[in-house]
Amino acid sequence: MTDPTMKKTAGDGVELALAMWEGKGETVLCVHGISSNCRCWDHVAEALAPQYDVLAMDLRGRGLSEKPASGYSVSYHCRDIHALLNHENIDQVVILGHSLGALIGLEFTAKFPEAVERLILVDGGGQLSAEQRKKVFAGIQPTLDRLGKIIPFQ
């Protein structure tokens, strides 16, 4: 497997980590889920990179991106993507979003349709009833509880 080139880039007032796999076609921006980071896309990016230029960002607060004390709503993540694209001089991308990244991709596309060539959603949630939402949040509560923890690298 080919490791990506890693760099720091600008988000909306935060520094974001960006993994890059060089290709020859359109740019695909991969947006990970709530408890992941940009490297979850390694195998997908390797398969896409010969044909596409693949970027995977660490959302604010994840991986090697800056971790501000606040500002973690979907709206903040969308502003980070917009700033990243402007900073990297990218006019249009294919957004590939997984889980929370799918939700971010939907909102980003609604806010900045001119910046999105295509939108690919993987394992994104839909509208839930109150009872369904309660069950989902009960299931993901252990993941949510881990979000604030710092686990030392060994």
Helix content: 25-40%
User: What structural class do you assign from the helix and strand content?
Assistant: alpha/beta
Question: Helical segment tally?
Answer: 4
Strand order of the largest sheet: 1-2-4-3-5-6
Main attributes of the structure:
six-stranded mixed sheet; 154 residues; alpha/beta; 23% strand; Rossmann fold; 4 helices
Walk me through this protein's architecture:
There is one protein chain. This protein has helices at residues 42-48, 74-87, 100-111, 130-146; strands at residues 5-10, 15-21, 27-31, 53-57, 93-98, 116-122. The model has no long low-confidence stretch (mean pLDDT 92). The chain has a single domain (5-126), classed as Rossmann fold (3-Layer(aba) Sandwich). The relative contact order is 0.17. The protein has 154 residues and is an alpha/beta fold. α2 crosses α3 (100-111).
Describe the structure concisely for a colleague.
This protein has helices at 42-48, 74-87, 100-111, 130-146; strands at 5-10, 15-21, 27-31, 53-57, 93-98, 116-122. With 154 residues, the protein is α/β, with parallel strands linked by helices. Strands 1-2-4-3-5-6 form a six-stranded mixed beta sheet, sandwiched between helices.
Describe the secondary structure blueprint for this structure.
Layout: E1 5-10, E2 15-21, E3 27-31, H1 42-48, E4 53-57, H2 74-87, E5 93-98, H3 100-111, E6 116-122, H4 130-146
Parallel strand pairs: 3-4, 3-5, 5-6
Antiparallel strand pairs: 1-2, 2-4
Helix pairs in contact: 2-3
